[in-house]
Structures are given as structure tokens and as C-alpha cells.
Write a structure and sequence with these properties.
131 residues; OB fold (Dihydrolipoamide Acetyltransferase, E2P); globular; DNA-binding; Primosome_PriB/ssb; Single-stranded DNA-binding protein
Length: 131
């Protein structure tokens, strides 16, 4: 996810969750340096707009659906190609590792303390069971 998802309402009062993903790929031509390629794809999800709160920048997702290619003429009169993905299902895979600078910032930031819970009933916690 390159940015947080946004829920939009169509003229016919239907809600659609719109978001953009980046697909990173690379290849190494013979006797040359590795080449990195990033393809940006605009996605739409029509089923449950509540998913938008989980589709935040940096989240890794696995999508199923249908890819569509499109084109339009921009304000300069040039033809521009687009890739759109009509999403049928979304699987959240977690957050990306981020850039080295983002990882350093996370390491330096103080961590919030873990919330402690007591087991008042005397029964063993599920985490302490030997199986």
C-alpha cells in the first residue's frame, strides 16, 4: 500500500474503497547492475468499506480479482495508460519492513509498555499449558 485507502461514494450512492499498491520487481541484465522496477496499480474494492481502516500505508496485501488496462488523454493532450484492479478479495499480510531510515526511526522510538493482565481465577493461562 502506497497510501491509506479512501472510501468514496458514487453518484448512485454505492461505496467503494479506493487504494493504490506498488508491485516491486527487479532483474539483472547480463554484465550490468540490477534494475528495479515499480508498477503502481489503482485498486477498487466494492464489498465492505470497513476494510479501509486496515488498508494503511505500508501494509502488505494479497489481492484476487480482475486487472484492467485503460487510457485517457491528459490536460496536455498526451495519451496516458492506466492499470486498474477490480478487487474481489483482500488478504492482509502485515506491514512492510520499510526503508532503512524508517527501520532506524522505529528502533529509536520508545516502545509502549506491555499491558499486564492478572489471572485471578487461579486456572493456568492458555500460554502456560504444555500442549
Amino acid at each position: 500500500m502506497v497510501a491509506n485507502a479512501a472510501v468514496r461514494t458514487t453518484k448512485t450512492d454505492k461505496k467503494v474503497t479506493a487504494f493504490t499498491i506498488a508491485i516491486n520487481d527487479s532483474y539483472k541484465p547480463k554484465d550490468k547492475d540490477r534494475v528495479q522496477i515499480t508498477t503502481y496499480v489503482d485498486c477498487s474494492y466494492w464489498r465492505n468499506p470497513g476494510i479501509a481502516e486496515y488498508l494503511t500505508k505500508g501494509t502488505l496485501v494479497q489481492l484476487s480479482g480482475r486487472m484492467q488496462a485503460g487510457a485517457y488523454i491528459n490536460k496536455d493532450g498526451e495519451a496516458v495508460g492506466t492499470l486498474n484492479f477490480n478487487t474481489e478479495s483482500i488478504k492482509l499480510l502485515g506491514k512492510s519492513a520499510g526503508t532503512p531510515a524508517e527501520r532506524e526511526t522505529e528502533k529509536a522510538a520508545p516502545k509502549a509498555g506491555k499491558k499486564q493482565t492478572a489471572n485471578a481465577g487461579g486456572a493456568p493461562d492458555d500460554d502456560d499449558l504444555p500442549f
